[in-house]
């Protein structure tokens, strides 16, 4: 009778060696995969801003001016004088014609049908690096806007107009109107009004994660934020203050609050990219700027006609 030949199996030691090798390989691969994903997120964010830049230039071509950070009175593209955001004004140039057709410019953004429409996500306004979002269910009153309770939470935006620089950064240099950029409340600025040069003037910054407040990378739901509620919010624009390292202080000057980028998203430039953030300039280009940039140097990029000489090695 023929004997059965038994196949040798794995010993326990061999199995443990294999598991250990797989664990080591995963430990080596995971950081690399995370770096690849982070790099892709940064590129996709840059592409979003490029599309926004093209849309802003199309708006300028049609109307002769850039849109403001938000309207609170009658103006170009807003004859009814309602509260309307720059993001709503440029939707037809972002292949969002259906949203533009449904948006009612005869009422404020917080009134129907606009309040329901605000719940429609416009993905070009989302940075892919932003982690899980917190969808607001209410907003405090900010007259003339009443307190709001959202049946459909408004969809977020990670990009905002930089209106200029607060005088506290440099009271001598940044006295009004020298502290303004090219998109501020009710502004109607043409490209030829950017005397510092379109290549030296930022229009749109990342301010990711709002309306949830972050300090560094720590979410702070205990800190209220009544700006940047969603992409239709017309009051989300802000001017640069500067912050201390952990984002707990703002607007105390370049000695006490020297950080321009990534200290907090409480109305300051902020992204979830490592080491800096993407910015859209008035000439249409997008540039990644290091979070180590000097506050006064960055402030010079946030004004259109203050006459600063800008020079930095990013």
Helix coverage percent: 10-25%
Largest sheet: 5 strands, mixed
Mean pLDDT: 92
Task: Provide the structure class.
Answer: alpha+beta
Shape: globular
State the separation between the terminal residues, measured CA to CA: 82 Å
The total of helices stands at 6
Runs in which pLDDT lies below 50 for 5 or more consecutive residues are none
Strand content: 5-15%
Integer-rounded radius of gyration: 24 Å
Main sheet: which strands, in order across? Answer: 9-5-6-10-11
Query: What is the number of E strands?
Result: 11
SSE pattern: HEEHHHEEEEEEEHEEH
Structure notes:
The protein is of the alpha+beta class. It is built from six helices and eleven strands. The strands form four sheets. Strands 9-5-6-10-11 form a five-stranded mixed beta sheet. The termini are far apart.
Topology:
Elements (H helix, E strand, L loop, with lengths): L11 H52 L6 E2 L12 E2 H4 L7 H6 L11 H4 L20 E2 L8 E2 L9 E7 L36 E5 L7 E2 L2 E2 L18 E3 L12 H4 L19 E6 L4 E5 L4 H6 L14
Parallel strand pairs: 5-9
Antiparallel strand pairs: 1-2, 3-4, 5-6, 6-10, 7-8, 10-11
Keywords:
12% strand; 6 helices; alpha+beta; 314 residues; five-stranded mixed β-sheet; two-stranded antiparallel sheet
